[in-house]
């Protein structure tokens, strides 16, 4: 389980998060919605350990990891652009975490089949389309046996036609994992298909919603301070 | 009629061709078969060539290795005192008169502190020649790595760390391989800068024919001896070597590679 408790964060004088809290259950996909600059990516980077909150806690499976570096958290992170290691093949990208004793080699075939990457395992990232790069980035995160999955607009580099297919595959792959997931997107269509629950970030504060429509309505109105989590 | 805004572009061709291209052409125009025969028949010319290439290659390897270490600090320890000092001093060897650099090296690694290595410490050896070349060429390698790091992006490191890498592991496994082009550019820049070094080399390494003499000091010696034809032949050879390195850099990193590598 992932718990984010009263997290505050500023970039210098600019406050981005003002007491954000959320709980995500194992296997649950929580979609984070919000306007540009609302702190969605910042929140993911705090959970990943890349940024340290000014205040508040990040708790994974009951363990306070706020002061732990990313390498000690066991999170699977898919940044906004796929960010594959350019000198490694697709297979070596996916199994990268084995170098650090994470992941199970027996899981590779299942992941490769689920994301239809079999024909591309020996290729380099620059030989793949944006959609396939996104699949590899997700496979790499899932392969590392994460306790939490963090996906920051993972399909932003994918065209609309490919996105329809990919959203289904991503949804299936995320369901297969028992890890709680935070999924950032701007696209309501994508949010509805991939998410189990929703959090809106607005003016640095978080508000939970049960449906995409409710989340979008809160965004339109400007979610009232103090409402929700 | 040339307007004032066109003046700079109008001035470029005469300035460039008169002061940059013409001296090189003049060198080639003064090349004679006798000078070539004299230089190529001189064993000291070949030992100077060997010393130049050997020491420049060693200095460039040292430069790139040190620059890779500097890159780690640039990426992960930018707030450290070590990084701030190194970043500030990186440009000093370029600005410092190279006679001063040579004297500094002589004082640091000569008989004063390194008497236990021999009568002159490290001075007047090929090691001294290499260190002098390293001193003046390292900044180019460091800047090449710095420019390369700006292109690699922090995302790669962040992803590698979420997959279990420590900062040092992420740097070695992901960043350094991604810097391959910058490292190659840095090596060739440092190598070509080392080829041309004279002042620091002669101050610290000396100009001992057959021992520590390099091509730059060989040309100087031949001019001093009044043997201009051999000096011209050696100079043209030196220029061809430098042009070959520049062409290699451009072919490996694209036409703008040198500029990119120099940040």
Produce a short descriptive summary.
The complex is a heterodimer of chains A (229) and B (263). Chain A is α/β, with parallel strands linked by helices and 229 residues long. Chain A contains seven helices and ten strands.
Task: Please tell me about this protein's structure.
The complex is a heterodimer of chains A (229) and B (263). Chain A is α/β, with parallel strands linked by helices and 229 residues long. Chain A has one domain (2-221): P-loop containing nucleotide triphosphate hydrolases (Rossmann fold, 3-Layer(aba) Sandwich), CATH 3.40.50.300. In chain A, 31% of the residues lie in helices and 25% in strands. Chain A is built from seven helices and ten strands. In chain A, the strands form two sheets. In chain A, strands 6-7-8-3-9-10 form a six-stranded mixed beta sheet, sandwiched between helices. Chain A has a four-stranded antiparallel beta sheet with strand order 2-1-4-5, with helices on one face. In chain B, α3 crosses α13 (215-224). The longest helix of chain B is centred in the first third of the chain and has 34 residues, at 43-76. Mean pLDDT of chain B is 90; it is low at 257-263. The chains are: A alpha/beta (229), B mainly alpha (263). Chain A binds chain B through residues 45, 48-50, 69-71, 73-77, 79, 81, 83, 85-87, 96-97, 99-102, 140-141, 144, and chain B through 153, 155-156, 158-166, 169, 173-174, 177-178, 180.
């Amino acid at each position: 389980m992932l718990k984010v408790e009263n997290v505050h964060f500023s970039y210098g004088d600019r406050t981005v998060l003002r007491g954000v809290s959320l709980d995500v259950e194992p296997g649950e996909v929580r979609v984070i919605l919000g306007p540009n600059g609302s702190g969605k990516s910042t929140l993911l980077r705090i959970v990943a350990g890349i940024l340290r909150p000014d205040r508040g806690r990040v708790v994974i499976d009951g363990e306070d990891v706020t002061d732990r570096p990313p390498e000690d958290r066991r999170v699977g992170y898919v940044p906004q652009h796929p960010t594959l290691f350019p000198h490694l093949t697709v297979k070596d990208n996916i199994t990268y975490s084995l170098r650090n004793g994470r992941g199970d080699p027996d899981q590779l075939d299942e992941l490769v089949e689920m994301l239809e990457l079999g024909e591309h395992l020996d290729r380099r990232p620059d030989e793949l389309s944006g959609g396939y790069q996104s699949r590899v980035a997700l496979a790499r995160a899932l392969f590392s046996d994460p306790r939490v999955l963090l996906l920051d607009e993972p399909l932003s580099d994918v065209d609309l036609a490919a996105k329809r297919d990919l959203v289904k595959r991503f949804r299936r792959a995320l369901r297969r994992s028992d890890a709680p997931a935070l999924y950032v997107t701007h696209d309501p269509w994508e949010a509805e298909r991939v998410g189990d629950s929703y959090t809106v970030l607005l003016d640095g504060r978080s508000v939970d919603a049960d449906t995409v429509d409710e989340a979008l309505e809160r965004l339109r109105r400007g979610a009232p301070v103090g409402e929700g989590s | 009629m040339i307007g004032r805004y066109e003046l700079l572009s109008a001035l470029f061709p005469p300035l460039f061709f008169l002061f940059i291209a013409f001296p090189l052409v003049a060198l080639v125009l003064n090349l004679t078969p006798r000078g070539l025969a004299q230089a190529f028949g001189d064993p000291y010319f070949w030992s100077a060539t060997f010393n130049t290439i050997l020491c420049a290659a060693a200095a460039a390897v040292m430069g790139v290795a040190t620059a890779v270490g500097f890159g780690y600090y640039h990426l992960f320890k930018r707030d450290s005192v070590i990084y701030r000092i190194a970043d500030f001093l990186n440009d000093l060897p370029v600005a410092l008169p190279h006679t001063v650099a040579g004297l500094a090296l002589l004082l640091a690694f000569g008989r004063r502190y390194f008497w236990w290595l021999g009568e002159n410490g490290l001075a007047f050896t090929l090691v001294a020649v290499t260190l002098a070349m390293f001193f003046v060429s390292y900044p180019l390698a460091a800047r090449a790595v710095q420019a390369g790091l700006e292109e690699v992006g922090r995302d790669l490191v962040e992803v590698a760390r979420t997959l279990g890498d420590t900062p040092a592991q992420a740097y070695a496994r992901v960043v350094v391989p991604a810097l391959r082009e910058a490292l190659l550019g840095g090596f060739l820049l440092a190598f070509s800068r080392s080829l041309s070094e004279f002042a620091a080399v002669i101050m610290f390494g000396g100009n001992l024919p057959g021992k520590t003499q390099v091509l730059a000091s060989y040309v100087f010696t031949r001019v001093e001896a009044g043997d201009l034809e051999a000096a011209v032949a050696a100079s043209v050879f030196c220029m061809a070597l430098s042009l070959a390195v520049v062409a290699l850099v451009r072919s490996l990193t694209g036409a703008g590679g040198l500029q990119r590598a120099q940040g």
